[in-house]
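Record minuted for everyone:
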Amino acid sequence: MNTVAFCDLDRVLSLTEAMHHAASEGRWDDLTELDAERDPVLRAGTMRPAPETLESLKSIMLMDNLIKDLVSAARDETALALDAGRRVRKAVAAYTSF
């Protein structure tokens, strides 16, 4: 007799919500840890053939997109800050060379 193991989508959804919360607060290390915890849970077992499975997956995908948007915005902000720092260093170097 074969036993089918189903993916624990409730746990995946809970971890995804925690990931979104971490990203919203800029806690990038927490986001990375939560993603590493979520990945094997998401890949374990098969999907239960039920309507709520589809709804859970839609919610997870929606939050994943929100997380990606937050990460992209933070990346862009960081790039701008690094660029501003480079310009300041360049200006200071130019000023001190006179």
About this structure: Residues 51-96 form the longest helix (46 residues). DSSP finds three helices and no strands in the chain. Residues 24 and 79 are 18 Å apart (CA to CA). The two ends are 84 Å apart (CA to CA).
